[in-house]
Specification:
Number of strands: 14
Number of helices: 13
Helix content: 25-40%
Largest sheet: 5 strands, antiparallel
Strand order of the largest sheet: 4-3-6-5-7
Strand content: 15-25%
Distance between the termini: 112 Å
Radius of gyration: 49 Å
Shape: extended
């Protein structure tokens, strides 16, 4: 990350060397501002201790200067880590180191290691190589932990500059047996492995990120002491108890809920404690809302059955009503004591923007010609089809009638007129008999019993 005061080279920010001009803290996190470091002033009460930060302030430790004197803030030094050597950046020098040690409860007897020498260009290149190995190692470490079925999350990996040791930071709800995991890590990365369990807030402080306010997380830039946060702080500030809005990147309640809590508590001292209900001669009023900094209390007054009205009252008015209740008298009506809220409406000014703003032309879809006639054409075709079918049916009926008339005429011509009725009846009866006999024969052929008989 680079800010406006950082110079850049080949598109990458060089950093402001954490000399106090960086306001974002992106170059080195958790900095202690040393205003004397900007001036070339010799400090007679110089200290032999320095504070060195590793991985941009993710971890800070104290070291003795040893033979290296005159170390300045922002210099890279090679230090003894006990299991080899590592490279860090000097983050604090002078008498401020002892003050920082008192704050973190670190005594001088616990400081064992010292600064070996100032880092060279080759040492810095070696440090960059170690930092480039951390991201693929983190991905591979998470895969191995998941295959073993361990309920833990690998949050960060930090390599030592000499590539002889790696520290894996993880979060878990309870204790985890990672003995087999350490063996797999040592076999996979061929390096000495150290496992450290951290909390959810420490994990977010190491990883970093942006909060809902748009700024970097407080825990990763300047907040070093984590205080307990409860929902009581949200209730005092009249905030809705919404877990999604009150929780931060770590999944816990936001640390910023405690920032303004003292101001709200001081303002709430002027409000009465036993003012949830106020009784009057016309009914009672129930407290529904508080405007802490304006000093207004909103009451819902029941006038009729099923109806209520919100009445804003001043804090002093509520105190007077409570004193009247204690003396045995009651107020007539809360509506007569209400505060008339006058909202100053801002007059809207209109500016002439002709010629400055041009709206784009809206392309209208062209209507197809004959769109309305399509439906009528279809209906006409259907009607024509039905008309043709009707004419065909009529013509076929006429033809059948003609043929029947011709056949009947021909029959009548061949026979005499007296025998017409008898001949027709006989022919019909013979036909019926023949049809019945044929049906019986067919049935007898289908049944095998009839054949045997």
């Amino acid at each position: 990350m680079g800010c406006s005061s950082c110079s850049s080279q080949n598109g990458k920010p060089n950093g402001c060397r954490s000399n106090g001009t960086c306001g974002t803290g992106g170059c080195n996190r958790m900095n202690t501002y040393d205003w004397l470091a900007m001036y070339d002033i010799e400090d007679p009460s110089s200290s032999d201790l320095v504070e060195v930060s590793f991985k941009h302030g993710a971890k800070k430790e104290f070291f003795w200067t040893g033979q290296e004197t005159g170390l300045c803030k922002g210099e890279y030094v090679v230090v003894d880590s006990g299991n080899g050597w590592d490279i860090g950046e000097v983050s604090l020098t002078g008498p401020l180191v002892e003050i920082q040690m008192k704050k973190k409860h670190v005594s001088t007897n616990k400081v064992v290691h010292k600064v070996m020498r100032r880092a060279s260009n080759k040492d810095v290149e070696r440090l960059e190589e170690a930092r480039n190995l951390e991201k693929p190692a983190l991905v591979r470490a998470r895969v191995i932990a998941r295959t073993l079925g361990l309920e833990m999350k690998i949050g960060d990996v930090q390599y030592q500059a000499d590539l002889k040791k790696a520290t894996f930071y993880y979060t878990a709800d309870g204790r985890v047996d990672f003995r087999e995991l350490v063996r797999n890590y040592a076999k996979e990365f061929r390096i000495k492995v150290e496992m450290r369990q951290i909390g959810a807030r420490q994990e977010s402080a190491r990883i970093g990120g942006l909060g809902p306010c748009g700024r970097e997380l407080c825990c990763s830039t300047w907040l070093s002491d984590f205080k307990s946060v409860s929902t009581v702080a949200a209730r005092y500030q009249n905030l809705a108890i919404n877990q999604a809005k009150l929780s931060g990147q770590c999944g816990r309640l936001k640390c910023c809920l405690n920032y303004e809590l003292d101001t709200y508590l001081e303002a709430l001292e002027d409000f009465p404690n036993d003012a949830d209900e106020i009784r009057t001669r016309k009914g009672k009023g129930t407290l529904i809302k508080l405007d802490i900094f304006k000093g207004i209390m909103y009451y819902a007054v029941e006038e009729e059955v099923g109806r209520s009205r919100v009445v804003p009252l001043d804090v002093q008015t509520v105190w007077d009503i409570i004193e009247m209740q204690k003396s045995g008298t009651m107020a007539d009506d809360l509506t007569s004591m209400r505060i008339i809220e006058v909202e100053n409406e801002e007059e809207m000014d209109f500016a002439d923007v002709t010629g400055q703003i041009e709206l784009p032309n809206i392309k209208k879809k062209k209507k197809r010609k004959g769109g309305k006639n399509r439906g009528s054409g279809r209906e006409q075709n259907r009607n024509n089809r039905t008309g043709r079918n009707a004419t065909n049916d009529q013509s076929s009926g006429q033809k059948s009638q003609k043929s029947d008339s011709r056949n009947s005429g021909a029959r009548n011509e061949n026979k005499p007129s007296g025998e017409k009725g008898d001949s027709n009846n006989r022919s019909r009866s013979n036909r019926n008999r023949g049809g019945r006999n044929n049906r019986n024969r067919n049935r007898s052929n289908q049944n095998p019993k009839n054949k045997d008989a």
